[in-house]
Amino acid sequence: MTAVLDAPRTVPVLATLAARAVEARRLVVDMAASPRGCHLGGSLSVLDILIAALHRVSAGDGTEVVLSKGHAAAGLYAALHVSGVLPENPAPLYGQAGGPYTGHPGPKVPGVRFPTGSLGHGVPYAAGWALARRIAGRPGLGIAVAGDGELQEGLVWETCQVAAAQELGNFVLVVDRNGGQNDGPVADISPLPRLAERFAAFGFEVAETDGHDLAALTDLFAGDRSTARRPLAVVAETVKGKGVPAVEGKAASHYVTIDAARAAKWKRAVR
After folding, report:
1. Contacts of 257 (CB under 8 A, 6+ apart)
2. Dihedral of CA 85/18/212/37: which sign?
3. How many Å separate Cα 84 from the centre of its chain?
4. What DSSP string runs through 5-41?
5. What's the chain's average pLDDT?
6. Is residue 193 part of a domain?
7. Owning domain of residue 136
8. What confidence tens digit (pLDDT) does each residue in 155-209 have?
9. Residues 40-96 pLDDT 10s
10. What is the pLDDT of residue 4?
11. Most buried of the four, 28, 94, 114, 135, by CB within 10 Å?
């Protein structure tokens, strides 16, 4: 059961969310120290977005969060655990054969309704959830969290077109814009100039924010969108490896395997 905090944006609530972010980053480092390692940089960049989104879920209105950039599963497992959705600590079990904590998330994990991994697919899952809530006359958002490199997938834009046409005001697409992808900087592979304008051209409301600002993110997710007729795109500027100084802002943080001694050192430095 998700731990419930009182209000969407108060000093105690934000302090609690910030403490969760620190704890979650240490768990992600632990998963990088597993025999298989993990997608460290992207898991750390998306953590604050996930923790703020899961705080909205704790309101119990039927909001669903879908991590479309499923390779950041370590970040999702950590965020679910510190938010009270996932009771057991996933770090010691991460990557074990036959276990639920695989390199891409699946529905065996509490809090994960849709499996993701093949990029682009989580976005229509969330849009479908939003459409289903609206047809049923029920509240709640469908929140998709995608990477900026993932926007190279045509399915993302096909979904945007449908979401705008169906006036899915309860659909929120968050872009974790950390500027990196598996093969290098997004700007060198398929640049995304005027990204906010692109979403606006599709008929979206658009917000641009610091993807590590928990207050701003919490405000964005707390909004009552029951009467909105335009879906919302949130372009969240983030830093790959955020919070772990040894890898922060470094492209080499994309996938990391470390030993226990280095993990202990990095966990002490988490900020």
Report:
1. 32, 33, 34, 35, 36, 37, 38
2. negative
3. 16
4. PS-SS-HHHHHHHHHHHHHHHHHHHHHHTSTT-B-HH
5. 95
6. yes
7. 11-268
8. 999 999 999 999 999 999 999 999 999 889 999 999 999 999 999 999 999 999 9
9. 999 999 999 999 999 999 999 999 999 999 999 999 999 999 999 999 999 999 999
10. 45
11. 28
Residue 4 belongs to a domain: no
pTM above 0.85, yes or no: yes
Instruction: Answer yes or no: is 6 within a domain.
Output: no
Q: Of 78, 67, 2, 36, nearest to 243 (Cα)?
A: 78
CA separation (Å) from 134 to 131, 221, 223, 257? Answer: 5, 17, 16, 43
pLDDT score of 112 more than 90: yes
Per DSSP, the three-state class of 184 is: strand
CA–CA separation, 14 and 5 (whole Å):
10
- Residue 103 tokens, joined: 């390199």
Q: Is residue 2 part of a domain?
A: no
Amino acid at 207: A
Is residue 77 within 8 A of residue 109, CB to CB? The reply is yes
- Nearest Cα to 50, choosing from 207, 232, 214, 243? 214
Distance CA 91, CA 94 (A): 5
DSSP-derived 3-state class of residue 221: helix
Q: How many domains does the chain have?
A: 1
What's 36's domain CATH number?
A: 3.40.50.970
Amino acid identity at 47: L
Q: From the CB of residue 141, how many other CB atoms can be counted at a distance below 10 Å?
A: 30
